[in-house]
Amino acid sequence: MRLLCFGDSNTYGYDPCSYLGDRYPADIRWTDVLAASTGWEVLNAGQNGREIPRRASELAQAERLLAGAGPLDLLAVMLGDNDLLQNPRLTAADIAGRMESFLRRLSEQYPLLLIAPPPMRPGAWVMEERVLTESAKLGTAYEPLARRLGIRFADAGPWNVELLFDGVHFSEAGHQTFAARMRTVLENTCGPERP
User: Fold this and answer.
1) Model-level pTM greater than 0.85?
2) pLDDT digits (tens, 9 = 90+) for 61-112
3) By CB neighbour count within 10 A (0-12 exposed, 13-18 middle, 19+ buried), where does 143 fall?
4) Which domains does the chain possess?
5) 77-to-3, 20, 96, 122, 158 alpha-carbon distances in Å
């Protein structure tokens, strides 16, 4: 399987404990752990701070990135946390609307898997009750969207992914858990070899 993961800092592998905000080593990042445990080619297209692309420049950048990746068996998209953190008035339903606009541009070109990120928790970056409440609703908002588009869906909310002190980023153990659960999802929905 050739899989591209399009996401934010948790896909990129950002380590908030590092001195200069570096990435975790490859043997920690969930994308690389997934690749090592399956033999699949897992392309990491995570970017720190990424919101769901919606402006013309963001959409063009995303389309260039995907076009340059070559043929894909699956495109996995996990976004939404930064939209909540950066936009105080947005709800989970608003973010699902953004996601729908983005995915409709891609759904005829790529087999898609939409992933609802694990809910954020109280921490150094998450101090508003609104963010916690709406983050917990993303899975519920994304699931009907995936059904409407006829694409695969996974809700990481129940996966018990450990987060660090900031309430946003995966711990090392969290990356391991996420990789294991992703492998199960992909084998169950796509088969062990190819979608």
Assistant:
1) yes
2) 999 999 999 999 999 999 999 999 999 899 999 999 999 999 999 988 999 9
3) middle
4) 2-190 (3.40.50.1110)
5) 11, 27, 13, 24, 18
